Amino acid sequence: MIARLIEGASPRALVLLGLLLLAAIAAPLVASDYLLTVLILILYFAYIGQAWNIMMGFAGQLSLGHALYVGLGAYTAAALYVHFGIGPWIGLLAAVPIAALAGAFIGFLAFRFRVGGVYFAILTIAFAEFARVGFDHLPWTAGSSGLFLPVKQFAGNDLWLLRGQPVMFYYLLLAATVLAFVGCRALLKSRVGYFWLAIREDEEAARSAGIDTFRYKMIAVVISASMTSFAGVIYAFYYNNLFPEQVFHISRSIEIILAPIVGGLGTLFGPILGAFILTGLAETLTETLHALGVDVPGAKQVFYGICLLAVIVALPDGVWPWLARRLGLKERGS
Questions:
Q1: Which residue ranges make up each domain of the chain?
Q2: Looking at residue 10, what is its pLDDT?
Q3: In the chain, what's the furthest Cα-to-Cα distance?
Q4: Of 65, 91, 166, 208, which sits 20 to 30 A from 16 (CA to CA)?
């Protein structure tokens, strides 16, 4: 299994990945509390960017409503914990199927009736907005008042209940990001991955070649939604509060897709690099402005827009393919 995963990867790429992993493992030992918080955000967007990349980067299906799956995962696990005391890992057993069913339903409506391209993107936005309005009026999840998880001071970390210090969430997200990277590589090198790439490049040609495009697009949606719901569970238990306007808003979906686009759509390391670039530099900008006593409303959003524009103009394939060529790495295996 391991041999299959590293097949095609250059030795230089493997060494680089190993060094980056060691640096990530050691980071909390030297990072300040603020830097650790930034690193947690980076890993969160790196993981969720990989989940979205399966749909758009691999299978070519543009989703602009992925906040739906974050919210479903977050609210399901949080509500079960608040009302029944059910731990997040047990709650995850309900959150993942609910998100997967939502993704399958949206996918069925779109793919069965040949709704694609920008119309599929609009459909995903619509369902995320439906969820936002629905949860805003759902008493069981406290509606617009917000759902709050009980917070206690812990001397240690309770991994089972996800109650503890930020360092616990850091290592949890690091493990999730690594597993997502390995899983995405395995998928991309599998038969399913090659079918996805065929569908992404030319769906009509793929269908003519005998590929069941409906089936494999559905697989992409379900896997992506399921992975994203896990990020929602972590989000809920890290921040300890949920508001429909905050969780399901389209701006959250846009934040999800920026890292893969900037890093490189369809690449394995692109979403991770994109998350480091966008989140790291955006937080640096925010902290710098705060230190200077300058208040610029929407500065982070403007920065995101500038980064996206710069990448589209200068590096339309993303930063990672360009960097991989400069470092002599093999893009597909990196």
A1: 8-333
A2: 67
A3: 62
A4: 166
